[in-house]
Amino acid sequence: MDHTELNEKLKDWEEHLLHYRLPDWDAIPDLGLYMEQVLVLLKQYLDFLPSDRKEDPLVTAAAINNYVRQKTMPEPVKKRYYRIHIAYLLMICSLKQSLSIAQIRQLIPAGLTAEETERLYATFAERHQRTSAYFARQVREQAEAPDREDPAAGEGRDMILSCAIVGGFARALADRLLVLPEDKDKEKAKEKEKEKAKDKEKDKPRDKEKEKK
């Protein structure tokens, strides 16, 4: 791919991202869809970037069944999936690109009510839109940047490196933020142990006095 073709691709992706939106809560069907219908719907909703490789599905029936078994999302009702199920799947499929399923369960508990899920999904969709717009600006900057590529290395190398590095930093930060509550709990436990140790030290002289008596 030469520099001109790469820039055209980047501009196409930018245009796509600028117009991409996750569906509003009320726009998600609440009709009780079967698995095959859900897969078709998710493919439409989660088309983040125009791709030349459409043969690789973003999510499969087996994966959705696993999410249900692992209690990552609510169980379907008589094999039918409603708005709450599809909202869960939109969030799970988006987040699994960079987080493990265990980490996703920390962020999105499976036992939420419909009202709680609606609030969480609205927050997620709004954040998704803002991040998509930010990423679109980065794509535009890359498309407008002068060609600094080493011809021997092939077009797009620097951008691939940048994306991989940014992705690594973002994943590391997300990992770190997820364990912050655990770190705080450990610190509290250590403080309690210290307090107990201090109390024991204070009680030693009293115990010795009792023994003398």
List the helices and strands and how they pair.
Blueprint: H1 3-19, H2 35-45, H3 61-69, H4 83-95, H5 101-107, H6 114-144, H7 157-212
Helix pairs in contact: 1-6, 4-6
Summing up helix and strand content along with how strands pair, one would put the structural category as: mainly alpha
Mean pLDDT: 80
Task: Summarize the helix and strand pattern as letters.
Answer: HHHHHHH
Parts with pLDDT < 50 across at least 5 consecutive residues: none
- Helix amount, in percent? 55-70%
Strand content: under 5%
| Count of alpha/pi helices | 7
The number of strands is 0
The main sheet comes to: none
Overall geometry: flat
What is the CA-based Rg, rounded? 25 Å
Spatial separation of the terminal alpha carbons:
92 Å
Please give a structural write-up.
The model has no long low-confidence stretch (mean pLDDT 80). This protein has 213 residues and is an all-alpha fold. It has helices at 3-19, 35-45, 61-69, 83-95, 101-107, 114-144, 157-212. The chain has seven helices and no strands.
